[in-house]
Amino acid sequence: MQILDGKTLSVTLQREMADEVDQFLADGKRAPHLAAILVGSNPASKVYVGHKIKACTRVGIQSSLVDLDAEITEEALIEKITEMNEDPSIDGFIIQLPLPRHINPEKVILAVDPSKDVDGFHPTNMGKMALGIDTFVPATPYGILLMLERYRITTSGKKVVVVGRSNIVGTPMSILLSRNAPFGNATVTLTHSRTKDLRAQLLQADIIVAAIGRERFITRDMVKDEAIIIDVGINRIVDETKKSGYRLVGDVDFENVSDKCSFITPVPGGVGPLTVAALIKNTLKAYKNTFK
Fold this sequence. Notes:
The chain is α/β, with parallel strands linked by helices. The chain is about 40% helix and about 15% strand. It has two domains: about 25-115, 3-Layer(aba) Sandwich (Rossmann fold), CATH 3.40.50; about 140-270, Rossmann fold, CATH 3.40.50.720.
């Protein structure tokens, strides 16, 4: 069994990107700029945005945070997005999800200029991705592709089962792994809460991508020997031995499953850090597009 160490790989990718940014500056160009909109005071969202800002600092990218009150109207938020669309100093920006209930996330995503949509959520970018046209790939699936590439994990001809059909992870991941491209060409089954006999599907899988958002849902009896497991889940469980009173676990029962696997991602320290690295890579892509 080999751990897929996303934390270490993310550091390597950030160093590579820092070298690239240094070259931009040496050529007399400005630094790339990533902005983030945070609505409200969701503790997890603040942590995630903080990780992204720290990564920008390490890479040498300018970052800015627009911190908005949770009571902001949908119209006012869209006005702010329009301002950022029109700001030439901003190469890309994200709207941290989830949003307050009174705001429709679909309207918000549609308001983002696709050329600055470094989250890769806009329908224009999702459509391009599905067609295999060069575009911004959603950060978590992109991070997973980077992991597969750097660990030289072959996907061609493999049976992949993706658990979870969200537009952020599950659906784009199933498209990316099935298309005719490097680290694609797999036979992919997209499963979800209505899938019958999920265990039988998983037992056929050479690669499992778990993104269902249920703590330790995938157990030892659902995984075949030598399977590769990519655990996207981040779930908090009570742990009184921790100062915080909780710890993070994935959608896979890591302790009881890991010894059966050829490769497996830990939680934390697996997919999460690569999501951040992939977001920065998308920002550099947006930046370079402005100079074409």
